[in-house]
Amino acid sequence: MSVVIDVDRSNLSVSRLNRTPSRALADGEARLAIEAFALTANNITYAVFGDGLRYWDFFPVGEGSWGRVPVWGFADVVESKSALEVGQRFYGYLPMGTELVVQAGRVDARGFTDLAEHRSPMAAAYNRYSNTAADPTYRADREAHQMVLWPLFMTSFMIDDFLGQSVLSDPEVTTVVVSSASSKTAIGAAFLAALRPDIHVVGVTSKGNASFVNDLDCYSSVVTYDEVAQGSASWPEGRAAYVDIAGDQAVTGGVHRIFEDGLAYSMVVGGTHWSAPRADGAMPGPKPEFFFAPSQIALRTKEWGRDGLDQRVGDAWDRFASWSNGWLRFETTQGAENVERLYGEMLAGRVDPRIGHVCRMS
Hints:
Blueprint: E1 2-8, E2 15-20, E3 29-38, H1 41-48, E4 66-67, E5 70-80, E6 89-95, E7 99-108, E8 111-114, H2 124-127, E9 128-131, H3 143-166, E10 173-178, H4 184-194, E11 200-205, H5 210-215, E12 221-224, H6 225-230, E13 239-244, H7 249-259, E14 263-268, E15 289-290, H8 293-324, E16 329-334, H9 336-347, E17 355-360
Parallel strand pairs: 10-11, 10-13, 11-12, 13-14, 14-15, 16-17
Antiparallel strand pairs: 1-2, 1-4, 3-5, 3-7, 3-17, 5-6, 6-9, 7-8, 8-9
Helix pairs in contact: 3-4, 3-8
């Protein structure tokens, strides 16, 4: 029996548990039992941008407006008519469910690619599954870190890498402003940006999360959304780059109006404030540009090679994962009904940023 959480794409707050018999495998396929996955604000971003960026297409339901929100986690091969072997453990892109049938191709010691026809148009980074036995970044005692933080940190790394390559090379740009500063993608980007010399990192967050964000010590200063709206906060001198993870146009407009032509770049990354109303009117400063991490990954893979990219990201990851132990604790949610309930809490923004949520559907 397969159990998966479906979400109404037209109303993300509506979900259901979909139970169906497990289907027989065709030649070339393997069945992965999903052992655990993380649920974070990043998954809400996948849902918010699901139509425009085709996140709904990875695990199609084929029934009305229902869709499946992708998550990152670990799964074990339990049945195979492919080159995959029963018992192998993989990390990668999964539905919020108990199993996934894959068309296993390009199999090597490092992993495999799901060659299912419906996934072929999507970014290769999302279709590749890493074999834990050969993954240089894998540690058994860090599986929770990898599920909760790794996909977010990869995005964080690419945000910082892009800024360093294209924006912060201008010596006049000395400030990076990050919204939704309590989110894990924001924290990773702030952590890396703070390592750059002479860069001031400003975290923008809610009043309720301001103390937590300030205690992280990766932000030079913290500003609340109310202060942005009122224009009452003090800001560092010099030009700035804005990293919008909240996806709240009112906040973005506020930041643009504060810096005006002093804003060198405006990056749109996520949509943690998915239900925020759209702001009206043009904003001063540069036009916000959407950042798609797989494009930067592809660029750096071409320039550095796969091993070069792995080395750079791996070194940064080790440092970040160790540092995260000072503020992050993990909690496990067990059972399909409880996981569905947690999804609703995550969607409503009622989760503690100090907690990394690991889910087990079984």
